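Chapter review: from sequence to fold.
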Amino acid sequence: MKKTISEHAARFSEAAPSYDDQKGEEYEACAGLVVRRAAPAAADTVLDLGTGTGAIALSLADDADRVVGRDISEGMLEQAREKASEAGVDNVSFDYGEFREPAYDGVAQIVTSNFALHHLSDAEKRAAIEAMASVDGGGTPSRNDTVGPRRIVLGDVMFFDGPDPAEPFFDPEVDDPATVGTLVDSFTDAGYAVTRVDRVHDQVGVLTAERVVTGGRET
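The token string follows.
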């Protein structure tokens, strides 16, 4: 991470009031795909990490039983809560949480994140994906461990062909995107198979990862 968590939080809190007005078409396309790929069932709880102003969380609220949003920026969380209140959405909640420590000990069948993980280093991304996979998915453990969420959907800045120096889609001072291969390897090592890769832009994509099933049992 090129800046501390508190520095990132302050930066996003400052931008929060106008953040929704600054989203580009790639962001909107990415967010729409994350919502479509998440596809929660009516009984599902979704954990949305790096929830920001709640775009993904609020979009999923109609289809899920409950949506839990976590972010490090209180300014962004305030915007998300205001939007939920104005829309009369009462099955979402927003509170502080980090990727590697989401501060959530409940069940979540689906974990989502959009345009946030790229602020972490590759090693920190791997730890974050391991944390996502460690969330209680509410299933029956096949061993003496907890069965993780059945699906993780990640929309983010990521390199399909490498960064383009002539047209960077990120700020090198604060962002640290990974290659698609690095992210896929992290999901694989966490016990998930990346079942779909949506290429929104040469430097933006959506990965859908499903919990691996072996021998008729989920791992």
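Two observations follow directly from the output. The mean pLDDT is 90. The longest strand covers residues 192-201.
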